[in-house]
Design goal:
It is a single chain. This protein has about 700 residues and is α/β, with parallel strands linked by helices. The chain folds into 3 domains: about 270 residues, TIM Barrel; about 190 residues, Class I glutamine amidotransferase (GATase) domain (Rossmann fold, 3-Layer(aba) Sandwich), CATH 3.40.50; about 90 residues, Immunoglobulin-like (Sandwich), CATH 2.60.40. Helices cover about 30% and strands about 20% of the residues. It contains 22 helices and 29 strands. The strands form 5 sheets. A 9-stranded parallel sheet has the order 7-6-5-4-3-2-1-9-8. A 9-stranded mixed sheet has the order 11-10-12-13-20-19-18-15-16. A 5-stranded antiparallel sheet has the order 22-23-29-25-26. α3 runs parallel beside α6. The longest helix has 28 residues. The two termini are about 20 Å apart.
């Protein structure tokens, strides 16, 4: 049997040649010995040590230092990769171009530039970048060169607003695309962000943005592959819904960087950069990025905690948990930022290497599961890569945009001025909800589901689909938030979701207070207690849903004196054979986390999902857990992480009874799989399986249901 590849730990590291290089190398060697890392991804002149777009002369001492490190690496089999700190440059921060760098600047939607970021279509910059990266590849001979996440048009500094590029060259090119003699920046921003049906210019602007990202990528790849054909090119990502605003087509871009016989090499964005409450720390952006890919990939998410770095930003336990999360959605390794960028070697956290080394056996053993997030169980979170092209903007006249940043009067333009940030969607909110409730789920771009599958959709995702595609979705099982309901009613599909009319009402207008769940759905509680959940702090406003006959009302919004206001949620079986769940809430607004989540809410969702069909559902009950569940060759893999600070005294999982029929169970102890005998109760085709496992905070119970 072929031995599995080890979990690949890649240290992202700036080896400063001007700050005690000999000591730096000595401490790096100690870290390699203690941590058992497999690769060092060297940063050249990162952030605080960056004075601008680097030159060969500035880089040579850094390259020489890396060569010294490579001699030491040979003793441990550690590989070298490179991450040049900049491409278009993250943000100016007071820096300036070096002598001889006459790049045309990227002009943001505000009309400003940051003094550093070039237009990606600037030929001088393209030539500079190709020459510089080829120089680095020849000097260091890395196994891979990682393109930094500043390969983008957005987030180059607040002075630019969302970003660009609105330089004269790009505006002239865009004018030709839309058949105009000339266009102004103000006109383009106003049209692209206009309210109502997307302006025809929006699709053209997104196409220009894609050209600005893809054209230099082709030139860079041609240069690098010509110089080092065996070297891989990796790409660092951002948030997919933000990428959509610049039409960053991951597959097309990675196809440029990747040979036909290679896997993609990617580093998905994995926030947070500073430790946050675990229960609300969810890797939805990483999983959405992975779900975008059409080809297999070597996935190495970012373990990032810059700029402070070390334990003041992220503790060892939290970092190990984030790395474990990566494995649970199919990562084969991790890229680690834990030390500063100023040449202080590992001084900031001398214990981190040993903390990683202790996890080596566990991480490597988990590779045996061969987890693939395309085989994750549970609810399907539906998203669309082109959501920015279809999103309807709100009242952008009050949103700021060019007028807010520059004071320009846009009142004479045909369309009101906005900001490109208005095009950002929010596709992952149901994922955040399901993580907190302990519900396994996956991300999908496909509207094709197997019998019993349940789709969940939020925000304006449904704007992306044709009427026929909407009908296809509604012939299956659907979970809709308020925005999705509004879109469907507006488009004439209200009769298929059981909603005749929908409106929004403010708390100040109706004094809604609580949501009471119907006992006919929830069951009777001890002593006649009513199952209730806070409503007034979930969102403001919320939706008033006028349900059609045939809708089963699951909960009702009431006032403080229990006076009924309007339905809170309902379930409807439509004429297409689909079952549709509707809720009055927009997700993630107001004090959503404080108000929405509770024991009642968790039990409510468990009952709902099994009532809707239950196929593949895998849900943790009782103690708050994050759950990842996958179908694997051996059966079902379940990972339940304790995300609160109390120890879980047992692990309770609900899943379809048919999924455990005749099964055996194993759990993971000391990097080995051992048999375990849980308590199993079956009620109405739902199995409640209780494992006698005590799980401390931020640790994970790994379970296999052996089919």
């Amino acid at each position: 049997m072929k031995k599995n590849e080890p979990f690949k730990m890649i240290l992202r590291y700036g080896l400063d040649p001007f700050n005690g290089l000999e000591e730096n190398l000595r401490q790096l060697e100690t870290f390699i010995q203690e941590s058992t890392i497999n690769e060092v991804m060297f940063l050249l002149m990162p952030e605080e040590r960056s004075s601008g777009h680097p030159t060969e002369a500035l880089s040579q001492p850094w390259c020489d230092a890396i060569k010294e490190a490579q001699i030491m690496f040979a003793k441990y089999g550690v590989e070298t990769s490179l991450n040049p700190w900049t491409t278009t440059y993250h943000a100016g921060r007071g820096r300036h171009l070096h002598d001889g760098q006459s790049f045309r600047m990227m002009i943001g939607e505000t009309g400003a530039d940051n003094g550093m970021s070039p237009c990606p279509l600037c030929e001088d910059w393209q030539k500079y970048l190709c020459d510089y990266f080829v120089y680095l590849a020849k000097e260091i001979e890395p196994v891979a060169l990682w393109v930094e996440d500043d390969w983008r048009l957005h987030n180059h500094g607040g002075e630019m607003g969302y970003g660009g590029c609105f330089c004269n060259h790009c505006l002239e090119r865009f004018a030709k695309m839309v058949g105009e003699k000339s266009v102004t920046r103000e006109q383009v921003v106003a049209a692209v962000t206009a309210t109502g049906e997307p302006h025809p210019w929006r699709a053209q602007w997104l196409e220009l943005a894609w050209q600005a990202l893809s054209e230099p990528a082709r030139k860079l790849t041609h240069a690098l592959k010509g110089a080092k054909p065996e070297m891989r090119i990796g790409l660092m990502s951002s948030i997919p819904d933000v990428q959509s605003i610049e039409k960053r087509d991951w597959n097309a871009l990675m196809d440029i960087f990747t040979e036909d016989n290679e896997k993609y090499l990617i580093r998905p964005h994995m926030p947070p950069y500073t430790e946050e409450p675990p229960i609300t720390t969810t890797p939805g952006y990483s999983r959405q990025t992975i779900a975008l890919l059409d080809r297999d990939a070597d996935i190495y998410p970012e373990l990032e905690n810059s700029p402070r770095c070390g334990p003041y930003s992220s503790t060892h336990k939290y970092s190990v948990w984030e790395m474990t999360n990566g494995i649970l959605y199919g990562a084969r390794g991790i890229t680690i930022n834990h030390f500063d960028n100023m040449g202080m070697n590992t001084y900031g956290d001398r214990g981190f290497g040993k903390a990683l080394g202790k996890q080596r056996a566990t991480f490597d053993a988990l590779m045996d599961l061969k987890l693939d997030d395309r085989k994750a169980r549970g609810v399907k979170i539906l998203f669309h890569p082109d959501v920015a092209q279809h999103k309807r903007t709100g009242d952008t006249a009050s949103a700021g945009g060019a007028k807010m940043y520059t004071g320009e009067d846009l009142s004479g333009l045909k369309d009101s001025g906005g900001t490109l940030q208005d095009l950002e969607a929010n596709s992952v909110e149901w994922s955040k909800v399901f993580y907190i409730l302990g519900i396994s789920h996956r991300f999908t771009r496909s509207i094709e589901g197997a019998e019993g599958d349940i789709f969940a959709v939020s925000d304006q995702t449904l704007r992306c689909y044709t009427d026929d595609e909407i009908k296809k979705l509604l012939s299956q099982n659907m979970i809709l938030d308020l925005a999705s309901i509004e879109i469907l009613v507006q488009r004439g599909f209200g009769h298929l979701v059981g909603v005749e009319k929908v409106s929004r009402i403010k708390l100040e207008e109706s004094a809604y207070s609580l949501e009471e769940v119907e006992p006919s759905f929830f069951g009777e509680m001890e002593g006649g207690v009513k199952p209730r959940i806070c409503a007034q702090r979930c969102a403001n406003p919320i939706g008033v849903l006028d349900y059609a006959p045939g809708v089963e009302t699951l909960s009702t919004i009431k006032g403080a004196e229990f006076d009924p206001k309007f339905p809170g949620s309902g379930l409807f079986a439509n004429e297409l054979g689909g079952t549709v769940y509707t809720t009055c809430y927009p997700l993630g607004t107001a004090q959503f986390y404080m108000a929405y989540f509770s024991r009642v809410r968790q039990e409510y969702w468990s009952k709902l999902l099994f009532k809707m069909g239950g196929r593949g559902q895998t849900i943790a009950c009782g103690h708050p857990m994050h759950v990842h569940a996958h179908n694997i060759e051996r059966g079902i893999s379940i990972a339940a992480t304790n995300v609160v600070y109390d120890t879980a005294e047992q692990v309770v999982i609900q899943l379809p009874a048919e999924d455990i029929k005749g099964a055996n169970f194993q759990t993971f102890k000391n990097a080995q799989w051992v048999d375990i005998q849980p308590e199993v109760l079956i009620d109405d085709d739902v199995a409640t399986v209780t494992f006698d496992l005590q799980i401390p905070p931020l640790e994970t119970a790994f379970i296999i249901v052996c089919g």
